[in-house]
Design a protein that fits this description.
Helices cover 45% and strands 13% of the residues. The chain has 3 domains: 13-78; 91-135; 153-350, 2-Layer Sandwich (Nucleotidyltransferase, domain 5), CATH 3.30.420.10. The N and C termini lie far apart (82 Å). It is extended. With 359 residues, the chain is an alpha/beta fold. A 5-stranded mixed β-sheet has the order 3-2-1-4-5. Helix 5 packs across helix 6. One of its GO terms (molecular function) is nucleic acid binding. This is IS630 family transposase. Residues 173-318 form the Tc1-like transposase DDE domain.
């Protein structure tokens, strides 16, 4: 007796598009991708045995998912809906746990742990842990903040963000600051090199060989940095750096400087020099708002890549390392992409103020 003829699979445009998307997806379950491949191959006329050999599955498996698709369509590829294990704890217990953790502190400390929360709620440690993960509750962590007390905060934010998002014509915008007290630290023993299975090893103690201060000006337009190391960070050194900026920027361009409120930047002799050089325009960031100055992000980069893990036998060696990093960085520099508007920043500050005031 002859076998019944295999029923042909004919896909609509929508079904083929959906199946192609599943196959190309990097997040779909492997089993679902394999089933989509089976259906697409069957629709293209490939025999079951050939599909099974190519995809590394059995021939009955190919027949199973063909039958599922023919009877249920795309929904049949997702398998049966299983109920899973019944829930042990209801919503009220979970809600009580969250209210306890969010609205109070444990009697024995200042932060909830999984064990203390489990003890207070009567739930198991694993249940508390899963609940914390599900709702993104992290009582063991904190995030620091500081609100500016500058009476001209709003005006300064709008001014500086305006320079980032809409810089003036025929002008250069420079974020200027100094990274002071950079220590030339020399480890007391040689560094153990990194290897397969273990990280680089450094001694916890060190010998100090002096400090230097890095003055830096970040060009907002192209991301390049003008740097200068000085032994101190008084107004004399800052004035020398301003003269270096004046020398390096073409004379036909205005210069907009974004600086913080450090007393050196407002020294009488600095103000006097700026008054004699009208192409310089100084914009002071609000108090406690160094995050508005893009050069602070660059200081983080040079600290991580060139300073923190270094071992320097002298201040001169440290300065040479910094100068080499700045030169290499400028060869492939790219500007930081500033996307925050003044309104979005002020909205976030307003939300924090409301949280603090409880309104």
């Amino acid at each position: 007796m002859a076998r019944p003829k295999t029923q042909e699979i004919v896909l609509t445009d929508i079904e083929r598009t959906e199946l192609d998307g599943i196959v190309r997806s990097r997040t779909s379950p492997h089993g679902l991708v394999r089933r989509a491949q089976i259906i697409l191959a069957s629709a293209d006329g490939e025999a079951n045995l050939s599909i099974a050999r190519r995809l590394g599955v059995s021939s009955p498996t190919v027949g199973l998912w063909r039958s599922r698709f023919l009877s249920q369509g795309l929904a049949g590829l997702y398998g049966e809906q299983r109920s899973g294990r019944p829930r042990v704890h209801d919503e009220d217990k979970v809600a009580a746990l969250l209210r306890t953790v969010l609205d109070s502190r444990p009697a024995e400390g200042n932060a909830w742990t999984i064990r203390s929360a489990a003890k207070a709620s009567g739930l198991s440690k694993s249940t508390v842990q899963r609940t914390f993960q599900l709702f993104g509750v992290q009582p063991h962590r904190t995030k620091s903040f500081k609100l500016s007390t500058d009476p001209r905060f709003v005006e300064k934010v709008r001014e500086i963000v305006g320079l980032y998002l809409n810089p003036p014509d025929h002008a250069v915008v420079l974020c200027v600051d100094e990274k002071s007290q950079i220590q030339a630290l020399d480890r007391t023993q040689p560094v153990l090199p990194m290897g397969l299975g273990y990280v680089e090893g450094v001694t916890h103690d060190y010998i100090r060989h002096g400090t230097t201060t890095l003055f830096a000006a970040l060009d907002v337009a192209n991301g390049t940095v003008l740097g200068r190391c000085q032994p101190r960070h008084r107004h004399q050194e800052f004035l020398a750096f301003l003269k270096q900026i004046d020398h390096n920027v073409p004379t036909d361009l205005d210069i907009h400087l974004i600086v913080d409120n450090y007393s050196t930047h407002k020294h009488e002799k600095i103000r006097s020099w700026l008054a004699r050089h009208p192409r310089f325009h100084v914009h002071y960031t609000p108090t406690y708002s160094s995050w508005l100055n893009q050069v602070e992000r660059w200081f983080g980069i040079i600290t991580q890549r060139a300073i923190r893990r270094g071992s320097f036998k002298s201040t001169r060696e440290l300065v040479l390392k910094i100068d080499a990093f700045v030169s290499h960085y400028n060869q492939q520099a790219r500007p930081f992409v500033w996307t925050a508007t003044a309104e979005s920043i002020l909205d976030k500050v307003e939300k924090i103020c409301k949280l603090i005031s409880g309104s």
